[in-house]
Write a structure and sequence with these properties.
Layout: H1 31-49, E1 58-64, E2 67-72, E3 79-80, E4 91-96, E5 101-106, E6 112-114, E7 117-119, E8 121-124, E9 134-136, E10 139-146, E11 149-156, H2 160-164, E12 165-167, E13 178-185, E14 191-195, E15 201-205, E16 208-214, E17 217-222, E18 230-234, E19 248-252, E20 262-265, E21 304-305
Parallel strand pairs: 2-3
Antiparallel strand pairs: 1-11, 2-4, 4-5, 5-8, 6-7, 9-10, 10-11, 12-21, 13-16, 13-20, 14-15, 16-17, 18-19
């Protein structure tokens, strides 16, 4: 599991990225301007979640075996898609781990498209940041490589989950959770062990931690990833009560200057993809990022769904 691109979603593999971050915050930002900016950010987060091939559209996650993997809606396939998403046999995906190569070959009469270009056979890119979305009618899919395993993600852009989703749910904006923080870098090479919801462990780079004060007490959070920002996986005392039990995310788009105060807006804590789809593999917070304090701010759980 790679978290280097975590902020661009953390490597879970959909076009719907985490909510965009404001980066550095201006402690003197007028309350009205701050509130307007936060509301706009939340609206973008909601829109991104609803996007084609986004978290709400996911309809399957399949770990493929080396060699040939047949797929389609028929029960005889190695990978069985839900009914209504195409023919019984759609094609074969051949995984060649030694060559780090994944080839998609479709059955006669079946065509997919990459963007506007139709094809019947192709090599699929599998890196998280350059993965190929290929599509047929309402169906879209891609393959990613993780720790030597090749995983097919399936999206149904007419899924009932997407149709029935009303909105993300947020705490009211609260300026008390605009906290002054300090970034403390770790020496190069520092790693943090991250466990995901499948109980898989990986050692991720940690650029440093932030310290801040909340309700008169000091706290700190380790960041993970190696991009230009700071990404946090955290849990607080609201987990399982008003917020998502496994934890939430927070992202700062640009690393603050070490030792220089900056504003960390906890109103921008948001839910991981696993809060919206069973077909994702989200990281859990490391023990040092489990806070005893309550953060009654940011995104709540569950989201608002029809029915």
């Amino acid at each position: 599991m790679r978290l280097a691109a975590a902020a661009l979603l953390l490597a879970t593999a959909c076009t719907a990225t985490p909510p965009p971050s404001a980066g550095d915050f201006d402690a003197e930002l007028a309350a009205s301007d701050w509130r307007e900016s936060l509301v706009a950010w939340r609206a973008r987060a909601d829109k991104g979640l609803r996007a084609d091939n986004g978290w709400l559209t996911l309809a399957g996650r399949f770990v493929m075996k080396p060699g040939a993997n047949t797929f389609g809606t028929g029960a005889a396939n190695d990978i069985v898609f839900p009914k209504g998403l195409g023919p019984e046999r759609m094609g074969t995906i051949t995984v060649s781990p030694g060559e780090k190569r994944v080839t998609l070959k479709l059955e006669p009469g079946v065509a997919f498209r990459r963007g506007a270009v139709e094809f019947h056979e192709t090599v699929l890119r599998t890196d998280v940041e350059t993965r190929d979305w290929v599509a047929r009618d309402r169906l879209a899919m891609h393959v990613i490589e993780r720790e030597g395993r090749y995983v097919l993600r399936l999206a149904d852009n007419e899924s009932e989950v997407r149709k029935g989703f009303r909105s993300r749910v947020w705490y009211d904006p609260d300026p008390a959770y605009r906290v002054r923080a300090t970034f403390v870098p770790y020496p190069p090479g520092r790693k943090v062990t991250i466990i995901n919801v499948l109980d898989e462990a990986s050692d991720e780079p940690s650029p440093g931690y932030v310290e801040f004060e909340l309700a008169g007490k000091k706290h700190r959070l380790d960041a993970v990833g190696d991009d230009e920002g700071l990404f946090f996986v955290l849990r607080d005392a609201t987990a399982g009560e008003t917020t998502y039990r496994p934890g939430r995310f927070l992202y700062v788009a640009k690393k603050p200057e070490p030792g220089q105060p900056f504003e960390l807006d906890l109103n921008r804590v948001y839910n991981p993809p696993c809060a919206f789809s069973e077909f994702t593999t989200c990281p859990l917070p490391p023990k040092q990022n489990i806070l005893k304090a309550r953060i009654d701010a940011g995104e709540k759980y569950p989201p608002d769904r029809a029915g």
